[in-house]
Design a protein that fits this description.
This protein is α+β, with helices and mostly antiparallel strands and 309 residues long. The chain is built from ten helices and eleven strands. Helix content is 41%, strand content 18%. A five-stranded antiparallel beta sheet has the order 1-2-3-5-4, sandwiched between helices.
């Protein structure tokens, strides 16, 4: 679809007061457009799947001043797929900050991570990626981590294993790291916390030194709250502007300041890092991005040994 089709759909759905329809470039699984209607600033997204939209609607229940999450206005059918209308948050993307800007944002970032860690999940069950009903399929955090090796037909990235095996990098680095994850994850705790699972890729907006929105909860999980911290550690080399920021050290200082004793900190963080690296290789193989597969394999090998003593 294109901007003209999106605008025609929105005008047909909401009437003639729709205006200023502008495409938003970011998004892997959907196309997004900002627009105005009756003075309201909104976002329309279109996708072949509605699960991510349903997860966003559910995630909005977890919103707080420290964890702002835009409200989903409606979800429906469009273009042989689905659409979702949500409130439009204001702010710049966290990804675009320079080192100084990121340092200013660290208190707000850790406040958001704390809010997710402290979120009450009384009605939810399971570990790993949760669905539109709020429940996750795995009986333990370890099982959720080890599921990264499964290439199930119902997954949207099905076929990645065959492509990885046929890639110039091959499956060897993946299997080596997965074997290590199997051994290391035996002692992972089964505390269940809310995890966003993708706090980069333009999914966090910032304004005036604070987080103004956390969007796109399609990768959200239940499990070890250190996973979202590991996300920043794993992807740090891809953000050269942040090279001088040690996210692990900043986290240690933050947890000490709030009196939080994180048991087996490095061991748990290492498991999360390896899982992220395996997921990176699988997704890159699905996209047939062979340079990314090679880079992911190298980064996974690096983080697998990063906290070895």
């Amino acid at each position: 679809m294109n901007s003209a089709q999106a605008e025609a759909f929105l005008c047909a759905r909401f009437g003639g007061d729709v205006h200023d329809v502008v495409p938003i470039d970011h998004g892997e699984w959907s196309r997004a457009y900002a627009f105005r209607r009756s003075g309201d600033e909104l976002i329309a997204r279109f996708s072949a799947r509605d699960e991510d939209f349903a997860k966003d609607r559910l995630a909005a229940r977890f919103a707080s001043p420290q964890l702002p999450i835009p409200r989903i206005v409606e979800i429906g059918d469009a273009f042989a797929g689905f659409y979702a209308i949500s409130e439009r948050p204001r702010g710049a993307c966290l990804d675009d900050l320079d080192a100084g800007g990121m340092r200013v944002m660290l208190p707000s970032l850790f406040a958001a991570l704390d809010a997710m860690r402290e979120t009450d999940l009384p009605a939810a069950t399971g570990f790993g990626g949760w669905g539109a009903d709020g429940n996750a399929p795995h009986s333990s955090w370890r099982d959720a981590l080890l599921n990264v090796a499964n290439d199930r037909p119902e997954h949207r990235t099905h076929g990645w294993r065959e492509r990885l095996a046929a890639s110039p990098t091959g499956s060897g680095p993946f299997e080596e790291a997965f074997d290590l994850l199997q051994n290391l994850s035996a002692d992972c705790p089964d505390a269940r916390h809310l995890i966003h699972g993708d706090l980069l890729n333009f999914n966090v907006l910032v304004d005036n030194g604070r987080i103004s929105a956390v969007i796109d909860w399609g990768c959200a999980m239940y499990g070890d709250f250190l996973y979202d911290l590991a996300w920043f550690l794993y992807w740090a080399p891809w953000y050269p502007a942040w090279r001088g920021i040690d996210f692990r050290a900043e986290a240690v200082r933050h947890y000490a300041a709030i009196g939080l004793d994180v048991l087996n900190f490095d061991e748990r963080l290492r498991c999360c890092l390896i899982h992220i690296g395996l997921g990176d290789q699988a997704y890159s193989a699905f996209q047939e991005s062979w340079e990314r597969v090679a880079a992911g394999a190298a980064r996974t090998r690096e983080v697998a040994g990063i906290f070895q003593r």
